[in-house]
Amino acid sequence: NIPSQGRLVSAATEITVCCAADAGVCVESKPLSPSQKSFPYVSLMLGNGTLSYDHDSDGRHTELGGCTAMVRNAIYDTSLLVRYSKNRLKLMVDVDGKQEWKDCADVTGFRLPPGYFFGASSATGDLSDNHDIISMKLYQLTIERSLEEEQEEEDVTVPRVDNMDQFTGWCT
Description:
By secondary structure, this protein is mostly beta strands. It has one helix at 147-155; strands at 4-5, 23-28, 41-46, 63-68, 79-85, 88-94, 102-108, 110-111, 116-117, 160-161. The longest helix is centred in the last third of the chain and has 9 residues, at 147-155.
């Protein structure tokens, strides 16, 4: 799960992103239930501390965006790029080993509180699969902000999106 405040959240027994106030990238190898999505599927998830992953809908009500990405049995390593800058969270994928990023999800108005950690976990459920994390590279960007923007950042206590209505599957 990426990121989680003060602790690493394990997905060893269940998908726990959204059981806490955190955000995550979820890579689904196969549908957990009948679904309208094409799998494998990569998505951005958001939790507010009260919602849990709904297996009956493959997490649709906590998904901010995502895409189909052929991450299983690939000839090349699969790379995911998560970029968070100026309240914008963007997810890109490279499944062809060409270092060419394809847009997967783009969320504006995303607010992430300071003090969060990055981590990774994996669970396969009934499906036998291999998950190798070769590297995680984190960079802090220095961006000039107004006093108003700095105050807004201090007011954020849990991850959130300014306009949750834009996410049709979100339930409150």
